[in-house]
Queue: 2 jobs
Job 1
Amino acid sequence: MIRAVKGTHDILPPESAVWNRVESTAREIFDLYGFSEIRTPVFERTELFARGVGEDTDIVSKEMYTFEDRDETSLTLRPEGTAPVVRSYIEHQLYQDPQVLKLYYLGPMFRRERPQKGRYRQFHQIGAEVLGSDNPAIEAEVLEMLELFLGRLGIKESTLLVNSIGCSRCRPRFLQRLKQELAAKKDLLCEDCQRRSETNPLRVLDCKVESCQPIIDGLPSILDFLDDGCRAHFDKFLSYLKERGIGFTVIPRLVRGLDYYTRTTFEITSRILGAQNTLIGGGRYDGLAELLEGPPTQGFGFALGLERLILVVQQTGNLMASLPPQLFLAPLGEAAFARSTLLARDLRRQGIRCAYDFEPRSLKSALRLANKLQAQFALIIGEAELHSGKFQLKRMSDGEQVEVSAEQLVERMRG
Ligand code: ATP
Ligand code: MG
């Protein structure tokens, strides 16, 4: 037997209906807030991620699916969506639009991680990016949109964590101090952090190894190092959240795993998820467009993991997987079967969801199946009904039965 590749999974019915519901809710809410969809290719030149995500990140250093094309170009299955969106923004000169650009994407991402609950090698993200504004109001608006989206899905208990990681002007002073402190405690750090403490000390704050936690807790806070501009930006952002009644917790050690982030960073977590508890991660990335040889462009965005979101929705949400048929057709005999296939065609053309079985059944067994499918009504089509053109319509909830013509049937089903 050939099985799906480790870390990948099939999305089967009835769960696929939940996926559709979640995706269409995202499209509806994001559209309300003026976001348009962008679809970028599933693979890109490796260079895009090496540069745009950063060589020293987990993603680039150990998680990418990279392969050589037949012409020796190095290609990579996209591990995230922001670098491709910004690549496309530059390539198509979308910056010529005088307005702030709001884009969202939805699709599979690929990272070679150790598969576990909520962590896969092919997974799906919904993400959104706002390009061309450094106003903290846009950040608050995006969080407001996410609150509405999660609320629509019936998710009530999520936590918003926020922080600012400063900018290229004030961060170096913090990094220098961090390096000093980490050098003094180097022996106590895990292997990865020993390396990071020199190459990319900010990422030590992101470490999840148990033994590093007490050391991280004792490190200085980046918030004490913000310059006036970054401080004012962060304070405004927080005040806009308060105005909207959006609850949050400031976590000074919250940094993002990607190098291009500046100022505001955030995460939305859910305790339902256990160890992999981050549902959404995002922040500001004012330096990315220039890094990719585009014009300086401020950016703010997020990505949410769909598998994790679906896990939460299935535990707390009130999304019905899929709707049962309105009508189950129960033909008795061959002539009645032929008539019911055409009747089903006419009903479906009028938007009525109906079902019937392709195997001959007795009336009793047909009604049993109608019950199992949770159909609202069953329509009995026997010899007598064929001749009279009147059918027996049975309401499954209480067994009430009435005689209807084909025209009356459509009316009743609509009502
Ligand atoms: P983590 O710390 O959990 O590895 P990350 O910082 O690598 O997350 P991001 O790159 O910010 O994650 O991606 C945003 C979201 O995408 C995550 O919060 C998560 O919901 C989801 N995600 C990331 N990697 C995976 C994966 N391998 N499988 C499933 N979902 C994922
Ligand atoms: Mg990760």
Note: DSSP finds 15 helices and 16 strands in the chain.
Job 2
Amino acid sequence: MGKKVIYLKTPEELETIRQNGVILGKAQAEVAKIIGEGITTKKLDEIAEEYIRDQGGVPSFKNLYGFPASLCISVNEVVVHGIPGNRVLKNGDIVSVDCGVFKNNYHADSAYTYCIGEVKREILDLLDSTKKSLYFGIESAKVGNRIGDVSFAIQSFNERNGYGIVRELVGHGVGRKLHEAPEVPNFGKRGNGPKMQNGMVIAIEPMVTQGKRFVIQEQDQWTIRTEDKMFAAHYEHTVAVTNNGADILTTFEYIEEVLTKRNLIFV
Ligand code: MG
Ligand code: MG
């Protein structure tokens, strides 16, 4: 097999992805407005899809590889790829909401983990470590650095905190396709992997476990959960590598504005 091509993007392409990132952030904010105890994950999916389509976008995940919904919603021990359905959220749950927006021929991809009601201190610590590691990864996304530098930043920070790093799922390039080269693992060695260049766009998405790092796939062929059923967290940004440093093209700003207004806990 030949090496997969990494498509470098022009400044105009970055702006298109950034605009999609704004739609995505606002779709997540619609989720943030209603998420809470007693709501089903299906309802969150509906609200996000409606918002994205109202903005002239298409939910990237819907029908991708046959996925049946617009959001991946992953509760507690589910790491990623949870299918929205009739599950009712309850006090103490954590909920990863992963969203993609496609418009004007480009995708944006971003995930956020929400808290339902009162979440245990040790789970908040897990979320905090995961989210901080996302930004450490982003800081390492520099022209001339290698993908392994991003991977190492994420892995070393979380493992130092005693958490597990999921190996089976990785970040990825983003562009005309949701999943492009290169792969962006959350584990690895400094100085390894493809060299980062101006115009590279990557989704950086640490998936971090409270217990052991091992995961299994449920019988629905989608849901990935921890083998030991301990909780997992997931945050994701789509990021451009540029000569002026990492440029985050998605945003948590709209989400956190809503969560602050609602007086809800987040890290
Ligand atoms: Mg995603
Ligand atoms: Mg992704």
Note: The chain has five helices and 15 strands.
